[in-house]
Design a protein that fits this description.
The chain has no helices and 15 strands. By secondary structure, it is an all-beta fold. Strands 4, 6, 8, 10, 12 and 14 form a six-stranded mixed beta sheet that branches. A five-stranded mixed beta sheet has the order 7-15-13-9-11, with no helix packed on it. The model has no long low-confidence stretch (mean pLDDT 87).
Length: 171
């Protein structure tokens, strides 16, 4: 595999295996016939794949299409003043798919001189989202409004991206 994914559970006819560091797995003891292979791992969406095992045939590869699940980042309000302080805005990061495990999200911005946010937040097990505060950084510089890009990332998920505008309060 070009980009192997470790820890995917593969199921064929009730027999399971988990992918290793190379993305490889093995299921023995399947008789001749037609099967459906399914895969699962938190943060990924898989399509099932039909598999045919013929007499005296050893399957060496089964391709199971995979896509990362999206993270969604939303912010209210999307425009605020640098004078608005520690609770200038509230952000929500939301995941899709399996929520049975907690998920740690890494957060960043491209303008730490304008906004502050936690470096990580954790979506609790059983929950689809978590809220956190965005703080405005008040400086004494007279400058124009600044557009700031916020980024939420987690392994196995596509990034959540949002922009906010921080207005200046200095004259």
């Amino acid at each position: 595999a070009d980009n192997p994914i470790v820890g995917i559970t593969i199921d064929i006819n009730g027999k399971t295996a988990v992918t290793d560091d190379a993305g490889l797995w093995e299921i023995n003891g399947l008789t001749e016939g037609h099967y459906t292979a399914t895969a699962s791992k938190t943060g990924y969406r898989f399509e099932s794949t039909d598999v045919t095992i013929a007499n005296d045939t050893q399957m060496t590869e089964v391709a199971i299409p995979v896509t990362a699940m999206p993270l969604t980042l939303s912010v209210t309000p999307t425009q605020f003043s640098e004078a608005d302080g520690a609770t200038a805005a509230t952000a929500t990061v939301t995941r899709t798919g399996d929520t049975s495990n907690a998920l740690t999200i890494d957060l960043s911005s491209d303008a730490t001189s304008k906004v502050m946010l936690p470096t990580t937040v954790t979506i609790p097990s059983g929950a689809p989202s978590v809220d956190f505060n965005i703080a405005a950084v008040d400086d004494t510089n007279v400058d124009s409004s600044q557009t700031v890009t916020l980024l939420a990332t987690a392994t196995g998920y596509t990034d959540g991206i949002m922009t906010v505008t921080v207005t200046n309060d200095d004259v």
